[in-house]
Structure formats: C-alpha cells, structure tokens
Design brief:
The protein is α/β, with parallel strands linked by helices. Helices cover 41% and strands 18% of the residues. β7 (167-170), α8 and β8 form a beta-alpha-beta unit. The chain has two domains: 2-192 and 372-386, Rossmann fold (3-Layer(aba) Sandwich), CATH 3.40.50; 196-370, Rossmann fold.
Length: 388
C-alpha cells in the first residue's frame, strides 16, 4: 500500500529551521499529530509520500524556496508553498496540489489521506480520487464551523467539500453526525501518542520538594483557565505551585495575578520539548476545559493524552469527547465551579505521593499499550484496506 498524505506536516528539523525566527507559528498541534501518524504508518512498513503545505509566515515565505524535497526512511516529503498575496491564492494552491497528488498517485493501489481543513488541497485530492478512482480519506481533527464563527467563504467551501471524501478518520463519534451526511464508512481514532515513550520511565518527580502543577495550552477564559487560577489560589497548600504555559486573551490578567500570588507562575510560550520535559518532572497536570461547551462533543482532548503519556498524574474535567475507558486512569473535577475545583485540588494534592505516582504510571501504561502511533495507524491501515 502506498499513501499520499496531504497536510502541513514537515520534517521536524525543517519545521524548526523555517520557523525559528518567525513571529507567527503554524499550529504545533497539527505538526505533532500528523508527524505521529506518518511515523506510525512508516513503522508498519507503509511507503508514504507527503504533499505538505508550507504555511505562510513572515519568515517562512521568503525561506520556502530554500526547502528541498527530502526523505526520512520510507517517508518522502514534497512541498507546496503558500502565499496569501494573490487574489487567486486558493485556485493556484488547488492547481499545484492537484498536479502533485496526481503525479504521486500513479499507482492504482495508492490511497490519499488528507487533512480536511485544507480546503484547496482537499478539493484537489477529491478530484484526483473521482477522476482516477483512488480512495481519498479525510482526517477531521476539528469541524470547520467550530473554528470559524464568521462563516467565511473558506469555511462554507470546506463544509461543502468534506462530504465528497471516500471515508473519514474522526476524533469523536459526534463528529460523524455533522461531516458524514452520506453515511460513508468511518473510523474513530481519538488521538495517538509517540511510541518512543515506551522507553521512558518517569520517576523524575519523586525527589521534588515542591508540588508543581502544570497547565499547558491556550490561555483563553473559555478553556477554564480563569477558574483554575482562582481555585488554586483558594487551595493554599504549602509548597505547591501552579505553572502555566501558553498564550491567549487571559495572558495579561494572568501576569497581573502572578505579581500578587507567588504560587502562580506564568512560564510563557515554550518549545514543545521544554514543556514535555517540565511535565515529566511535575507533580500534577491539569486540564480545566469546561465540559458543557458544545465544541467539547466534537473534539477529543488531545491535551489529556499528552499528559497521560508523561506518566505524571492527570486532573481533568469530564469531557464528552473522551471515551469512558480513560477515566479509571485520571483524577476528575466532578464540580466545575471554583469551589468544586478547589475541593478536587485539595483532595488530589493531599493524596499520598506513592498513590499519585501509581495513578500516573497506570495512565502512561494504558495509552502506550493501547493508543501509541504504531497501534493506531495499524487500525487506519485495516480501515483503508476494507474501504470500498
């Protein structure tokens, strides 16, 4: 089986080089997700050709032409540059993608897997699929209408295009009701973790004197970060600190709070590698995202999976997009009010250290044995093989 993987994924060294000096970064979450998928497929002896859109930033645009097609094992990277300077941007991108996908899918057994949020490239993948009878599978990590409340032309186009794929790889069951009106075959793959963590043994926090709690993600009020900070201030447990990573509309308020409360520390925006290392040495990782928001039904909390693979205990709200089989391995906020969060923090942070460590270890074992990228992409292969 040969796979043409259409997304924004780049080799990590290329990603770092292109965006090291840029003020605007393309989504690190997308880079991480698609990298894990293609590396998992490669580990299952699949030949992969990527068609990778290099998003425009102030620096990457001028550096794009320095990028050369490259290979890593069975993965061959092919690039398409993006520039928003032309009024015909979408059409130019569509033509470039169509030509590239067509050339790479010459083998009749080729399968196209495409990030459905890339509108022009999705249209190109579908056209190749229809004209030359290739399977085209959409990877839907978010629903377009959830990302763009303005209902822009691009969003409406994406919503129109998605139903024409041959099948779907979705994050949650609820997504299927929205983006699969023709009831085509689909599979649920809520997320995946790096199989290389199978060799990681997290014992770093055993000798830590302070109880370091971490939130890493978007600093937006709607994600519950404000309530978490208020609850942590009320908790007032000796030698405990809340370290917060990320940026967003809550950032300025947070920085003011940090000057008034020494146990709340804003760590800024850090490279993913730094955040992961800090998560490994923390006492508790927290996800306060509200469970009553509509968008939580249509997305899996990938942050929780990242937390769990670290081996550090996790405290999270009960999110609709997270399957029941995860809950025995995490601690939960049963009441999402400030007072309820305070109570949960008090309970968890006063739990004996060894009991907490065992919770973290069991969570790590669960995701590594059941959700690693080699196992999850094996399911993709089986699904694609049976797709008509």
């Amino acid at each position: 089986m040969k796979i043409i993987y259409v997304s924004t994924v780049l080799p990590q060294t290329t990603y770092d080089k292109l965006y090291s000096s840029s003020r605007i970064l393309p989504s690190p979450a997308a880079q991480k997700y698609h990298s894990l998928v293609i590396k998992g497929l490669e580990s299952n002896n699949i030949e992969i050709n990527t068609v990778s859109l290099v998003p425009e930033t102030s620096e990457s645009d001028k550096n794009f032409y320095k990028v050369r097609e490259s290979s890593e094992g069975n993965i061959k990277y092919h690039y398409i540059g993006s520039s928003c300077s032309s009024v015909f941007h979408g059409m130019i991108l569509f033509i470039k993608a169509y030509r590239k996908i067509l050339k790479l899918s010459a083998d009749k057994g080729s399968v196209i897997i495409c990030d459905a949020l890339l509108t022009s490239m999705s249209a190109a993948a579908i056209l190749v699929s229809k004209l030359f009878r290739r399977k085209a599978v959409a990877v839907v990590t978010d629903l377009p209408f959830m990302l763009d409340k303005t209902k822009s032309i691009r969003t409406r186009l994406t919503n129109c295009i998605i139903p024409y794929f041959s099948g779907y790889i979705l994050m949650t069951e609820a997504m299927n009701n929205i983006c699969n009106p023709k009831y085509k075959p689909y599979m649920i793959m809520e997320g995946l973790v790096d199989s290389s963590f199978l060799t990681v043994n997290n014992e770093k926090f055993e000798n830590t004197q302070k109880k370091i709690c971490i939130y890493a993600g978007g600093l937006h009020e709607k994600y519950g970060i404000g309530k978490l900070v208020e609850a942590f201030i009320l908790t007032d447990i000796k030698d405990s600190e809340l370290h917060i990573y990320g940026n967003g509309n809550y950032q300025d308020k947070l920085q003011k709070i940090c000057t008034e409360h020494s146990n709340i520390k804003y760590m800024g925006v850090q490279p993913n590698k730094t955040v992961v290392e800090d998560e490994l040495s923390a006492s508790l990782l927290i996800n306060p995202r509200p469970s009553d928001e509509d968008f939580t039904k249509y997305s899996f909390p990938s942050k929780n999976m990242e937390y769990m693979v670290s081996g550090t205990p996790v405290l999270t709200t009960k999110l609709p997009g997270m399957p029941e089989d995860y809950y025995p391995f995490v601690c939960t906020f049963d009441d999402e009010s400030v007072e309820g969060m305070n109570n949960a923090l008090q309970k968890v942070l006063n739990t004996p250290a060894e009991e907490l460590r065992e919770k973290g270890r069991s969570a790590q074992q669960f995701v590594l044995e059941n959700k690693n990228n080699i196992i999850q992409t094996r399911k993709i292969m089986e699904y694609v093989k049976n797709l008509k």
